[in-house]
User: Fold this.
Amino acid sequence: MAQHHYYEKTIATEKIFDGRVIKVLVDQVELPNGAVHTREIVKHPGAVGIIAITEEGKLILVDQFRKPCECGLLEIPAGKLEKNEPPILTAGRELEEETGLRAENLELIYTFYTAPGFCDELFYMYLAKGISKVENPASADEDEFVDVIEVTIEEAEQLVVEGKIRDAKTIMAVQYMQLTKQVK
Amino acid sequence: MAQHHYYEKTIATEKIFDGRVIKVLVDQVELPNGAVHTREIVKHPGAVGIIAITEEGKLILVDQFRKPCECGLLEIPAGKLEKNEPPILTAGRELEEETGLRAENLELIYTFYTAPGFCDELFYMYLAKGISKVENPASADEDEFVDVIEVTIEEAEQLVVEGKIRDAKTIMAVQYMQLTKQVK
Assistant:
């Protein structure tokens, strides 16, 4: 692919933090006008989210506490990519771990950067079709505590309007349902 | 507001990085089952995005290089909150700086977390109404190089389908236009 016309060449890079989930770099870059500027960059392994709709046409949401926000959030099931794990496998794994459900089919509907101003997190959004309960589901990560709820599309829309759904990917999922009438 | 039932109490917090844009903390938290776990947290000042539609019903996008992704992205006009700046003022300022446009009215349509798994960035999405060219617009940040383009709603949809729009807030904006037929 051709280089972008506003490409910023890296002159120097400093590793600030190498954590369990994220890495933090500070790069010195050369701007298109020749000036040198600093970019603070969060490196993230990438993540998946799953729009899972029950036979009754209800959207599956998880209610969990999010430490960075110091609040609970209603979100579609989601999770980080493990190293070298293809995103579709992450999607199946996270759906089972968080909700005890399995999908016959997972279709990739969007791929996007969540916060490209400072972070390289690439997010894969799947639509799960043909979902059913798993008898003995794989258990969630040891640090994950979530409640699973089901809402109708009307309830989901209302939760967005009332500001009770306030997670980007989940608003996107509700809009996707509205646009495609992903109700049975 | 009542504490979430999976609330994680902070036992210790370590400041890893205090940058120009972001801060990074590593918190030790007590999980609901009593176990202690580490949370890596990026603190961000928050940001705004603007869905601006011309008199001809075209969506305003900016094409810019994004260092974290090492690629160019097509995005709606957006920018970080300055300290103590009300989001609606940030929205007006960023719209003018990035596009040379001004809005008669800015309506807050969504408020959401962009990446709540590791970051507290809260994003305010505005719909700009009554936009017009500013004669001598405020200039952009010294490190910002963007091209402004206008696309029809059909072109915007196609760019999403083709994976040429791959920014979360911009996909959300295109969905919003589709749902509300925000064409003149």
In short: The mean pLDDT of chain A is 95. Chain A touches chain B through 72 residues (CB under 8 Å). The domain at 47-180 of chain A is CATH 3.90.79.10 (Nucleoside Triphosphate Pyrophosphohydrolase). Strands of chain A lie at 9-18, 23-30, 36-43, 47-52, 59-66, 71-75, 78-80, 101-113, 122-133, 146-151.
